[in-house]
């Protein structure tokens, strides 16, 4: 007898290479059921993000999963050009060609899709958000009860003890829309933050994706392997420990691992706020529980976030590999 997957997930994403890796982990994992993919600008424009989400799902034989197009720009600050040097101009490492696929966008905005699904399944759905947080912030504006309607939010973003990756203190997703991020951190979700503190501890070698592609002999895993090889060049040029194994940080896939295997992480719980402007724009700041801070903005009205601080890296890598090596792929649609 099969059991229903315990995690019913909306995946909010800007694919993006590690976003693609995370999507395929979610599709492959028996404890996750992906109910929809909501897209945002970030690694690419939102139009490209939606196109990539449709394409990745179709390749994997999961074209029935709805995909929506969401926010195209930050809520307040001016948007910036996507980082083509990291994810490629197409977000998937500049694929040399794409096969023809047939799945189409759901007409709703990403925010509306999240609200509709949360209202239909109160208390059941987890949002795994791995891009800038504008879709969730807009969904909150449409439905202020969203924190009670969703089961949980897990987000890849931010850094507490680890330096930033787009400024000395800011991580890219939070930097891309600090106002949206602060709205999400202060809304009252059951919220887990999977930031650079842990994602910088998990370096995945390209050889692992080559092995997965060889094993499956499938367009989906060939595409992922191509994308990861491009992405790994960027990281290997920047970080000597990544270059040593010719790899990349898993970033977004760690948000799903934190959902399926929270025992692999240690967390610290406290109030998180985001610096909205100035030199520290995009910094995620964690208020330590045992210190009294007289400054405003840190009172008990700010809900707690579980911030991932440590991760068991070898176990994570093994889990990602075994999940992607399992039999999860269907015929391209
Ligand atoms: C985050 O930024 C994006 O480039 C990645 O997809 C990930 O979500 C890492 O800082
Ligand atoms: Ca992402």
Q: What does the secondary structure layout of this molecule look like, with pairings?
A:
Blueprint: E1 7-13, H1 17-28, E2 32-39, H2 46-59, E3 67-69, H3 84-87, H4 110-120, E4 125-129, H5 134-142, H6 146-149, E5 150-156, H7 172-176, H8 178-185, E6 191-194, H9 196-199, E7 203-205, H10 206-216, H11 219-238, H12 240-243, E8 247-249, H13 252-260, E9 265-274, E10 284-286, E11 304-311, H14 313-325
Parallel strand pairs: 1-2, 1-4, 2-3, 4-5, 5-6, 6-11
Antiparallel strand pairs: 7-8, 9-10, 9-11
Helix pairs in contact: 1-11, 1-13, 4-5, 5-8, 10-11
The structure holds beta-D-ribofuranose (BDR) and calcium ion.
Model description:
The protein is an alpha/beta fold. It has one domain: Ribonucleoside hydrolase-like (Inosine-uridine Nucleoside N-ribohydrolase, Chain A). 38% of the residues lie in helices and 18% in strands. It is built from 14 helices and 11 strands. Strands 3-2-1-4-5-6-11-9-10 form a 9-stranded mixed β-sheet, with helices on both faces. Strands 7-8 form a two-stranded antiparallel sheet. Strand 2 (32-39), helix 2 and strand 3 form a beta-alpha-beta unit. Helix 1 (17-28) runs parallel beside helix 13 (252-260) and helix 4 packs across helix 5 (134-142). The longest helix has 20 residues, at 219-238. It starts with 6 loop residues before the first strand and ends in an 8-residue tail after the last helix. The relative contact order is 0.16.
């Amino acid at each position: 007898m099969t059991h229903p997957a315990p995690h019913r997930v909306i995946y909010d994403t800007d694919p993006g290479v590690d976003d693609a890796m995370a999507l395929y982990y979610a599709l492959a994992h028996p404890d996750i059921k992906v109910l929809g993919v909501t897209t945002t600008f970030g690694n690419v424009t939102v139009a490209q993000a939606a196109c990539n989400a449709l394409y990745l799902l179709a390749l994997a034989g999961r074209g029935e999963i709805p995909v929506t197009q969401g926010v195209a720009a930050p809520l307040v600050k001016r948007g910036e050009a996507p980082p083509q040097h990291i994810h490629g101009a197409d977000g998937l490492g500049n694929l040399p060609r794409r096969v023809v696929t047939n799945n189409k966008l759901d007409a709703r905005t990403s925010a509306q899709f999240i609200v509709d699904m949360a209202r239909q399944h109160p208390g059941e759905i987890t949002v795994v958000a791995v891009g800038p947080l504008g879709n969730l912030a807009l969904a909150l504006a449409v439905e202020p009860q969203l924190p009670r309607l969703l089961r949980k939010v897990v987000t890849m973003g931010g850094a507490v003890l680890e330096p930033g990756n787009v400024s000395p203190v800011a991580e890219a997703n939070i930097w891309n829309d600090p106002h949206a991020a602060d709205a999400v951190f202060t809304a009252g979700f059951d919220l887990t933050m999977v930031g650079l503190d842990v994602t910088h501890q998990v370096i995945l070698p390209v050889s692992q994706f080559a092995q997965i592609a060889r094993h499956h002999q499938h367009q989906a895993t060939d595409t992922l392997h191509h994308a990861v090889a491009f992405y790994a060049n960027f990281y290997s040029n920047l970080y000597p420990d990544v270059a040593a194994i010719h790899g990349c940080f898993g970033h977004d896939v760690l948000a799903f691992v934190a959902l399926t295997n929270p025992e692999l992480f240690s967390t610290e719980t406290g109030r998180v706020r985001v610096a909205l402007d100035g030199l520290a724009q995009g910094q995620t700041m964690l208020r330590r529980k045992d210190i009294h801070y007289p400054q405003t903005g840190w009172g008990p009205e700010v809900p707690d976030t579980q911030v991932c601080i440590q991760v068991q890296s070898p176990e994570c890598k093994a889990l990602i590999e075994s999940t992607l090596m399992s039999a999860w792929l269907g015929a391209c649609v």
